[in-house]
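note to self: dont lose this again. the chain is below, predicted strucutre after it. 474 aa total, dont forget to put it in the shared folder this time
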Amino acid sequence: MTSSITTTPRVVNVGVETFADAIRATGGEVVHTDWRPPGAGEAETAWALAWLTGDADDPDSAGSRVDRANREAVQRVIDATPRVRGIRRADAVWPALGRTLMHAGPPIAWDRMCGPMQGAVVGAVLYEGWAKTPDEAQALAASGGIAFAPCHHFGAVGPMAGIISPSMPVWVVENAAGGTVAYATLNEGLGKVLRFGAYDAEVLDRLRWIERVLAPGLAQAIEESGVAIDLRGIVARALHMGDEVHNRNVAATSLLFRALAGPLTRSRLDRRTVAEILDFIDGNNHFFLNLSMAAAKAALVAAHGVEASSLVTTMARNGVEFGIRVSGLGDRWFTAPAEVPDGLYFTGYSAADAAPDLGDSAITETAGLGGFSMATAPAMVEFVGGSAETARAATTSMYEITLARHPAFTLPVLGFQGAPVGIDVRAVVDTGIRPLINTGIAHRRAGVGQIGAGIVRAPMACVEAALLALSSSR
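---
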């Protein structure tokens, strides 16, 4: 007599999910773990990671030194107190600017720039009066008659193309706790704007109005009031009101409007000018974005330059390359090709029309905001694609690659946990989880403007390169 015993297989599957699918197909129970070797199995990367993380009990080990440096660096970000101190012209902040144009992302030459950035350069040249026609502006840029440099090299940040020219006014944001200052232009609004590469008369007229009316009026009101606008407080409140202060700034702009309305109405400005300024801010839900970026930059500048720290202090894109900088590695850029965001497109457009990822606005994610805090902004999720559940999962996953939770920037939907802050290149390589950014999508041609919004991630190649550099520097 024989007997057979049939049991349902119960399996823990590690790595390749197709194995798990095969077991499920036979009725088996599977718990799948999406694990893969760090650094895609590259031995050099894996050894560098092991050396920079191992032997935490030995205070003299590389891992312990990096841990101590990271605690200091991320605490500087958390302690930052960014406040608006005023508005100045770029050539007053940097008198030696000359014919230099700042741009978003890591360094890039004219002939390698994407369409939107080249268009923005043409617009800035026309705005400054360095050329009379677009053809003349392009010829000047191509001839070497203009110098180009990343905004980040000047402690500044700019959305999309990120162009800052000498006559443009910039916000001055001071982090008294860290002794740092950061700068950003004033947001132009939506539609045809310079940051997307548009440069027709409407765009140039708006830039001149910002230079001659908006900026001086705001500067005067802020100076007369003697009040430094608390950006940390605005961000903290806006996170409780459905913003993540990168792609959604409705609440933050409203709070800023309230902070400015009193000083403006009590200032010596005439009523018509005050009305123009308030109407412009009221009609531009993204007005706070540039201040959010400057606030993040001021905090991260304070965290830069901590010896041995593996904390990322810059993420930026120029439409061709994605670049990062790391606290313990000086001002060196680590770059990889920029990716096209995965998202939703406006009617009539598709991924074939999109420029690769562009702009300095990923500085918000670098400081724990934007995509890192996306769970708190359900209204925005529909715009970039996905659901409230995927946004929550995205934020939760960012805790795995960050060093701390920001005590001031809490997320109600996650039980008021602090936002994930302090990207650690070691954790990114170890987990394979790439930093997530929610972003607008620009048309690849200059001047068309925004054609959608979506999600993009930092390329692993630039993170791995930074990890190797940190390992070899010790």
